[in-house]
Automatic annotation (TrEMBL):
<dbReference type="GO" id="GO:0020037">
    <property type="term" value="F:heme binding"/>
</dbReference>
<keyword id="KW-0479">Metal-binding</keyword>
<dbReference type="InterPro" id="IPR002401">
    <property type="entry name" value="Cyt_P450_E_grp-I"/>
</dbReference>
<feature type="binding site" description="axial binding residue">
    <location>
        <position position="432"/>
    </location>
    <ligand>
        <name>heme</name>
    </ligand>
</feature>
<keyword id="KW-0349">Heme</keyword>
<keyword id="KW-0560">Oxidoreductase</keyword>
<dbReference type="InterPro" id="IPR017972">
    <property type="entry name" value="Cyt_P450_CS"/>
</dbReference>
<protein>
    <submittedName>
        <fullName>Cytochrome P450</fullName>
    </submittedName>
</protein>
<dbReference type="InterPro" id="IPR001128">
    <property type="entry name" value="Cyt_P450"/>
</dbReference>
<dbReference type="GO" id="GO:0016705">
    <property type="term" value="F:oxidoreductase activity, acting on paired donors, with incorporation or reduction of molecular oxygen"/>
</dbReference>
<dbReference type="Pfam" id="PF00067">
    <property type="entry name" value="p450"/>
</dbReference>
<keyword id="KW-0408">Iron</keyword>
<keyword id="KW-0503">Monooxygenase</keyword>
<comment type="similarity">
    <text>Belongs to the cytochrome P450 family.</text>
</comment>
<comment type="pathway">
    <text>Secondary metabolite biosynthesis.</text>
</comment>
<keyword id="KW-0732">Signal</keyword>
<dbReference type="InterPro" id="IPR036396">
    <property type="entry name" value="Cyt_P450_sf"/>
</dbReference>
């Protein structure tokens, strides 16, 4: 049955013709939906309407429209599709998937206090120390570079959030959280949410039922999430017998602020819960994204040796060819090319290719098109990164394209949100809260790797400069 609604005589945005009942399921590779959405962008334009069962999906393929809707009309476009916050998967705690609400504002305030532009420089020692560990690990066992990237990303975020030092291998807490993240990345997508919303009965299938893997995943997740939230939190929490003993961390600092602000026990409990939940969300949001970006960096370096040579020449010109010291934060302003390499890495293959879906609170009209209330709104970063007017030869890795725009001033005043590629961090009231931390971690890793190593393709590995043939994993992050 077709939904009947009053579109106020405005048409829906253009899009592929839907099949009866199921909508636009044909032609979408469920693991790589950004490819189909980008194709639709070429065919139908900057804003595309599609339908999955009865779920309206609006795909934004250009930065222009994303800024118009998600920034300028953020009052209407800042919530999340309800299917993403399924209580069966215990996601109702996660900042990333919360609807726009007081709880979300509290989470974002907690993040902002720790991660705003002026505050993040306090994490630099942790980031540089972990970058040095990263190059030591890469030297010892380069073949497991992926594990080392992962250790780098997770160790930084665990130190920052909880002052928790992860074990060099097989950390028991990380094993739990990784299992939980594996499930999240697989399940928390608008396409899956639309199917589950259409057939709530699916949630009731017995776990042994063939194809009911997400029911089994939900059961595992319900066991994991309380552990993931409580274990590191207790580590960062002050010993109640000896107040003020916890080492500095986002969590302990936030907890210390509570008594100053409120004497009310109920309010204090809400704040404490907010701190616990937002910090648990921070780990998930930070680890995969930073690790994946380092994979893209590595891919670029082996496919573009001339970029690598230019980047290394810049480093040599700053720290000296004899390598008497490793680069440090004070060198960053003198390394515009390294900064451009980081920008281009974020652009070349955005690791959150479709961002995290937003949703509309009310009906809207935009450039004559009707956008329904409750629509899932996807900002297609993949397509924005391939805008041929802004990025000629967009499939090529060309750091030089950022050189006129890269900000080289002292980094405490450097706001990546104002940069060319800010779209990879999302939009409006939901823009990534960890973007300043992410950028700094990437600098620490990239500059140290390039100082110490030459990165080359393994013999016999033949991938062209467009990285065609590279297999991108499916999910929220790739
Ligand atoms: C290269 C690294 C990263 C990339 C590409 C990235 C990208 C994104 C994107 C696209 C979103 C969705 C924005 C939107 O809805 O419009 C997001 C949200 C978020 N990110 Fe990041 N992120 C990165 C690193 C981090 C780090 C290091 C943290 C640290 C805590 C973090 C924390 C978050 C949180 C909490 C949200 C949810 C915000 C909300 O829903 O209001 N991210 N990120």
């Amino acid at each position: 049955l077709q939904k009947k609604r009053d579109t106020k005589k405005h048409p829906l945005p253009p899009g592929p013709p839907p099949l009866p009942f199921v909508g636009n399921v044909i032609g979408i590779d469920p693991d790589h939906p950004w490819l189909a959405y980008t194709r639709w962008g070429t065919e139908y334009g900057e804003i595309v309407y599609s339908r999955l069962f009865s779920q309206d999906i609006v795909i934004i393929n250009s930065e222009r429209v994303a800024h118009d809707l998600l920034d300028r009309r953020s009052h209407n476009y800042s919530t999340r599709p309800p299917g993403l916050t399924s209580p069966s998967f215990c996601h109702d705690y996660s900042t990333v998937f919360l609807p726009y609400s007081d709880k979300l504002r509290l989470h974002r305030r907690i993040f902002h206090e720790a991660f705003h532009l002026e505050a993040v420089s306090s994490f630099r020692p942790v980031q540089m120390r972990n970058a040095h560990n990263l190059i030591r690990n890469l030297l010892a066992s380069p073949e497991v570079y992926g594990t080392h990237f992962h250790t780098f990303s997770t160790s930084i975020i665990m130190s920052i959030l909880y002052d928790y030092s992860t074990a060099p291998v097989d950390d028991p807490f990380l094993a739990l959280i990784e299992r939980s993240l594996e499930i999240d990345v697989k399940v928390l997508r608008p396409e899956v949410a639309a199917v589950i919303a259409e057939f709530p009965i699916l949630k009731k299938l017995p776990p042994w039922f063939p194809g009911a893997s997400f029911v089994r995943d939900a059961i595992v997740q319900r066991t994991l999430v309380p552990m993931i939230m409580d274990m590191p939190f207790e580590h960062a929490h002050d010993d109640p017998q000896a107040a003020g003993t916890a080492a500095p961390s986002v969590v302990s600092d936030a907890l210390k602020r509570i008594p100053v602000k409120t004497q009310d026990e109920g309010e204090a409990a809400v704040l404490e819960k907010g701190i616990k939940e937002s910090s648990a969300s921070g780990y998930a949001a930070a680890s995969e994204t930073t690790t994946s970006t380092l994979y893209v960096f590595l891919l670029a370096m082996v496919l573009y040796p001339e970029v690598q040579i230019r980047a290394q020449a810049e480093i040599d010109s700053v720290v000296g060819e004899t390598l008497e010291r490793l680069p440090d934060w004070g060198d960053r302003a003198s390394m515009p090319y390294i900064n451009a390499v980081i920008q281009e890495t974020l652009r070349w293959f955005p690791v959150v290719p479709l961002g995290i879906a937003h949703a509309t609170v009310n009906d809207d009209i935009y450039e004559g098109y009707y956008i329904p209330k409750g629509a899932t709104v996807i900002a297609n970063a993949w397509s924005m990164a391939r805008n041929p007017d802004k990025y000629p030869n967009s499939t090529r890795f060309i750091p030089e394209r950022h050189m006129s725009k890269v900000v080289v001033e002292e980094l405490s005043t450097h706001d990546p949100a104002s940069d060319d590629i800010s779209f990879v961090f999302g939009f409006g009231r939901r823009i990534c809260v960890g973007r300043h931390v992410a950028e700094a971690s990437l600098f620490a890793a990239v500059v140290n790797i390039l100082t110490v190593f030459r990165l080359e393709c393994a013999p016999g590995w033949n991938v062209g400069p467009d990285a065609e043939g590279v297999k991108w994993t499916g999910g929220l992050t790739t």
